[in-house]
Amino acid sequence: MINPSSENTNYFYEKNADEPNYFNFHEAYGNVMQAHFHRNMELLFVKEGKMKATINGEEHVLKQGDIAVVNSYDVHHYEGEKQSHVYVVLFGESLKPAELKSGEGLENFLEASPNADFIFRYLELFLKNMKKWNVLSCEGFVHLIIGWLVSEYGLRKRKSNVDTSLFMEILKYIDEHYAEDITLEQLASKFGYTKNYFSMLFNKYLGKHLRVYLNELRVEKVEKRRAENKDSTVTALAMSCGFKSMNTYYRAVQQIKNRNF
Prior knowledge:
Low-confidence stretches: 4-14
Oligomer: single chain
Largest sheet: 5 strands, antiparallel
Strand order of the largest sheet: 1-8-3-6-10
Radius of gyration: 19 Å
């Protein structure tokens, strides 16, 4: 699926982003992305402003010229300043260069290179001409970017992480059961770990409590359903997405609006 986009809006994870031939290139301003993971690779280039990025529990504040690299199955989330401007590239296995299929990968956080102007000019050029893209040009685009990154930063051996693997399962479960009554106790019972351990995982990977993450996810689901069901009321949608009252829903919406970088 080739899906180039230049919409200046939040970009939320979709399951079809795991298709082998998936490709998406877009720019975003003040981008906020909830914690998620996917098989495909994702690159985030900071053109202007600052972006707080957390990948596998490690948090960095990215500045102009910095790059975040999300390898396959890395748990990640972003929160950008309102004035931040970023380029985001996602691509599937069929577009991935052979160098990245050998168990090696790029570091998750790359500081701005002295040669960064080249890659940002290249990104801008492709974005302006994306209507002319086809499968071959998308593959060439990805290979040039990865080739430049490897030559500038090198590759490293990837390590498995038990906590990351478990948290991926937790996120998947929450995404499938967000409308239900999910608590730390319930998760601990289901997955066979202690409540304190789950609390530690949410602090490590999200920097927030399960309740906050769950309500933010439910707000996103409400907005998505509103776009798909124009005739449904906000109250009906909020209740169907797991909110127990409209006060809780409006409070969650307000917290998202007041979120500071």
